[in-house]
Amino acid sequence: MLELIYPNNLYPQAGCDEAGRGSLAGPVFAAAVILPDKFYHPLLNDSKKISSKNRDILFDIITKEAVSYGVASCSPEEIDKFNILKCSIIAMHRAIEQLKTRPRSIIVDGNRFDPYGDIPHECIIKGDSKYASIAAASILAKVSRDRYIKEISKEFPQYLWDKNMAYPTKGHREAIREYGSCKYHRSSFKLL
Known about the structure:
alpha/beta; Nucleotidyltransferase, domain 5; 5-stranded mixed β-sheet; 6 helices; 5 strands
C-alpha cells in the first residue's frame, strides 16, 4: 500500500510529479496534489503502472477528493529556451502556485527540484510508486498531458500522436522524416 504522508510529517503536504519529459513534442505537464488525511484508493499507483481507463477513473476521484490540486505546463518554446529539466521544475512550481491550501512540505518524484519559497521539500526516487500524493500528481499530470496531445493530434494526424503520445516511437520518427517537424516539436531535442 502507498504511504500517505512522508515521514517528515509536515501536513498538509503536496506531492509533485511531471509527465512528458521524454516526449519529442508538446509541453511538459506537472501536477501538485494535497490529499486528505487517511486517503486511500486501491487503484492508486504510479501512472505508468495503470491502464489508461483506470487513470481516467482516478483523475476524476483525485480532482473531486483532493484537499487541493494544481496542473500546469511548460511550452515547447520554453523547453527549447531553458531545457527540459528546468521546465519540469518550472511546471511543478506553477502547479504548486495553483494550490488553494499552502503546503507545509513538498515531496517530489525524482532527484531534482528547486526550492519553492521557504517550504521544505524532499526528492524521492520512484516516489510515484511509494507515496500516494506523488502517485496522485503523476495521474493528474499524465492524464492532462495525454488529453492535450490527443487534441493537438487532430491538427497533425500524420505523427500518430493519438497512439504514441508524441514519444520517440519508430512511427513518430518516420513521420518526422517524411513530413518534417511542426510547431509543437521541441527543436532542441534530437528528433531523428
